[in-house]
Write a structure and sequence with these properties.
By secondary structure, the protein is α+β, with helices and mostly antiparallel strands. Helices cover 35% and strands 28% of the residues. It is globular.
């Protein structure tokens, strides 16, 4: 049983105050894009996971855990416990989503594993409560199941689909190495404290919602926002050069994707994205430059 699952880019990531449970209240506008991992679930004598790179994908698969720290394997075990079956499954992950790149690749694999294992074990995905299990695994996992465009509240797991018209075209520039999401949040907190800045209570941007509903790429580019970007730039200063290059080459909008270090650039059309990707690749400011479009569906059996 094979499931395809998309990467995400955060069109808006508003980070609120630190909560007592160690998380932040977020306003997270997720957007699923056509950069996919595939997870295949097959019967096995014991739970295990294998990882390979998709053709032409320059992803650091050596950084993907293949033990109990793998989110996909954790998802399979969690679902098996819910269903009362043994988690005897091999998960074969084929990756094209950057590893530790701010595009929720690990969370996407967990969502794919939930759906693949539910089908493998003849369970009704709705009856099995996959969204609830997804939220237990991680904040980004429920959106990887849903796909499209959605506002996530709380830790990002409480989702409301967003009206979106048309297709938006993206260019993503990946970087060598990853960034730790907890480290980026911690740096965000440190920067705010050092600057005497009180953490705001975030709200979904009205301009962003209007641009999505109207399919207005230029307005969307102007409305992109990420409260974690200053922290990511502090931890990885080279990203500033990548962002500047994309803007100078004509991107309608540019931002660090999630906690980084992948950077995202919005184009006005498929042709514009192709030109922008070629120009960025020539600048030598990224490990790999890839194009994608969105929104796309979430985890899907193939």
């Amino acid at each position: 049983m094979t499931v395809r699952v998309p990467a995400k880019v955060n069109l808006q990531l508003g980070v609120g105050p630190l909560r007592d449970d160690g998380y932040h209240d977020l306003v997270n506008v997720f957007h699923a894009v056509s950069l996919f991992d595939e997870v295949t679930a097959v019967p096995a004598r014991e739970p295990r996971v294998t990882v390979e790179a998709a053709p032409d994908a320059q992803v650091a698969i050596q950084d993907v855990p293949v033990d109990g720290g793998n989110l996909a394997l954790r998802a399979a075990r969690l679902l098996a416990g819910r269903l009362g079956v043994e988690p005897d499954v091999e998960l074969r992950i084929r990756k094209a989503i950057p590893v530790a790149g701010g595009m929720a690749g690990g969370s996407a694999d967990a969502a794919a594993a939930l759906l693949a294992c539910a089908r493998l074990w003849d369970a009704d995905p709705d009856a099995a409560g996959l969204p609830e299990l997804a939220a237990e695994i991680g904040s980004d996992v429920p959106f990887a199941l849903l796909g499209g465009t959605a506002v996530g509240l709380g830790r990002g797991e409480r989702l409301t689909p967003v009206e979106t018209s048309g297709t938006f075209h993206w260019v993503f520039a990946t970087a060598d190495g990853g960034l730790s999401t907890p480290a980026v949040y911690a740096e965000c907190d440190r920067l705010r404290e050092a600057g005497g800045e009180a953490a705001p209570w975030p709200r979904a941007s009205e301009e962003l919602m209007k641009s999505l509903a109207g399919g207005d790429a230029r307005a969307l580019g102007a409305a992109l926002a990420n409260d974690l970007q200053p922290a990511a730039l502090m931890l990885r200063p080279s990203l500033r050069r990548t962002l500047d290059a994309g803007r100078e080459l004509g991107a309608l909008g540019a931002l660090v994707s999630g906690s980084g270090p992948t950077t995202a650039f919005l184009a006005g059309s498929a042709g514009h994205a192709a030109d922008l990707a070629a120009a960025l690749a020539q600048e030598g400011v990224a490990r790999q430059v890839v194009r994608a479009h969105g929104p796309v569906p979430g985890a899907t059996v193939v």
